[in-house]
Amino acid sequence: MSLTIALLSPGAMGSAVAARLTAHGATVLTSLEGRSEASCARARAAGMDDAPDKRLAEADIILSILPPAAASEPVDALLDHLGEGSLYIDCNALSPETKQALEARVTATGAAFVDGVIIGSPPSDQQNPVFYFSGAHAQRALPLGDFGLDVRTIDGPVGAAAALKMCFAGINKGVIGLGTAILLAAQRHGAGDALRTELDERLPHLLGHFERGVPGMYPKAYRWIAEMREIADFLGDEEAGAMIYEGFARLYGYIAHDGEGAGEDQAMLDAFFAGPQSPAKKHGAD
Amino acid sequence: MSLTIALLSPGAMGSAVAARLTAHGATVLTSLEGRSEASCARARAAGMDDAPDKRLAEADIILSILPPAAASEPVDALLDHLGEGSLYIDCNALSPETKQALEARVTATGAAFVDGVIIGSPPSDQQNPVFYFSGAHAQRALPLGDFGLDVRTIDGPVGAAAALKMCFAGINKGVIGLGTAILLAAQRHGAGDALRTELDERLPHLLGHFERGVPGMYPKAYRWIAEMREIADFLGDEEAGAMIYEGFARLYGYIAHDGEGAGEDQAMLDAFFAGPQSPAKKHGAD
């Protein structure tokens, strides 16, 4: 059994996925033309072979896993070489509408398109992210599961996998945003210690989510502003929750701004997690 | 050791608290003047004694625990009789600013004021809510702990206990709102089953919170609209999260409206929790 995969492009996630695939016997091609020496070294360490776009287009599966802020040039260059028999899988965190627009461009060449998303951190000895695929050709992505990836299909159109990714991020980062807003308000009103006690007793799962997620958010807050606005667009209108996510975008903008300045709010949040300065005093019945 | 408590008024929470106090040997007075026969029966079953306002004002502790939509008449009538030595504890879920305004009215009579809140369900064989008290006179509420209540003080001014209650509700009901918005979006995009699988594997604590909280919210959604707006007011400005809670108010308004009509969205949420209609198919590495 052999499988040739073209991978765009060898960023952190792309290289880790390629390393997993080559370790399981797959051939992984990528274009190193014009890439930095560091990128080339990373690609070779992951077992990838350099190949021109024409050869990439002939691979069994084309996987697009671009770094978050990447331009779309690698995709544009490849489109000219696609044709019937090509299988193009976009694994980037885009909106359902953007995926559908990309599908139209890819299928215009005669190639098949699959909507893919990756949930979790890059593959490593400790963990393996899950790949979800949707669209009429989703089953054609399954051979990746024979080469070390955790792959699952969703019985839905192009856009369903994209929606899953947005929803998962919306829950995880929304809960972190709620914690950020409310814990700051509690601290400002002198109720932080009592709130921590109550959360610990009644909603310990949420206190844990805040402890893990809020401090880790500070350096990412700036990036999350646009991500929250994308989720607001995805939800569509106010009654469906769009205003909630516009609110998170502004909150994260505020936190990012705070971090560039004195960091007073980040310090206030850290103080919440550091524990009792003046703990609630408990009396009476237990 | 004896303690006489005046309780305004014998609603569901007030009566349950009174029953707990009288079972532990406290004397609990309330005014039954003009109350319905059902209220009078409930008050007597809880061991409360009927008393005129003048006698209520002479109790060791005056506890205001009004039903959510209650008018403030019981309080207004009592204010005329308060004086130095009276201890007035407001245990209602009001904003810090409203508590401070009430404090001003009470202390103008010479009486002492304590900010109190109750977190949890009414006392029963199974559970006991926690009473938090803040303000300069908070320590004077502690004798309630000798009569079966779980009482704690917060080392903060009048308003700190009120803030705690708002923050706790903001987290609990905010997380339910996030679930409502996102689970509906996932269902509409055909990604509901895959999202449930991912939440179950990666964020099971949040899936559990949604399962417990979302279906129970439907009949309360109408009431939560105003509560979300109060939390938005409490947070103050957009960057502090006020817009997030205005968004929740609109979302809950939408859910309440849906429940008055065909209930299509509630049915869609129920379908999410009911489990796989077309579950994600899993392949490859585990």
Q: How would you describe the overall organization of this protein?
A:
- The structure is a homodimer of 286-residue chains.
- Chain A is α/β, with parallel strands linked by helices.
- Chain A contains eleven helices and nine strands.
- The first copy, chain A, has helices at 12-23, 37-45, 53-57, 73-79, 96-107, 160-188, 192-202, 204-217, 221-235, 242-260, 264-274; strands at residues 4-8, 27-30, 49-50, 61-64, 87-90, 112-119, 130-134, 150-153, 281-284.
- In chain A, helix 6 crosses helix 11 (264-274) and helix 9 packs antiparallel against helix 10.
- Chain A is elongated and about 65 Å long.
- At the A-B interface, strand 7, strand 8, helix 6, helix 7 and helix 8 of A face strand 7, strand 8, helix 6, helix 7 and helix 8 of B.
Separation of the first and last Cα atoms of chain A? 65 Å
Provide the domain count of chain A: 2
Which strand order does the major sheet of chain A show?
3-2-1-4-5-6-7-8
Global shape of chain A: elongated
Percent range for β-strand residues of chain A? 5-15%
Order of helices and strands of chain A: EHEHEHEHEHEEEHHHHHHE
Tell me which oligomeric state these chains represent.
homodimer
Low-confidence stretches of chain A: none
Q: Tell how many strands the DSSP assignment of chain A holds.
A: 9
Task: Average the pLDDT over all residues of chain A and give the rounded result.
Answer: 92
Helix/strand-derived class of chain A? alpha/beta
State the helix count of chain A: 11
CATH-derived architecture of the largest domain in chain A: 3-Layer(aba) Sandwich
Largest sheet entry of chain A = 8 strands, mixed
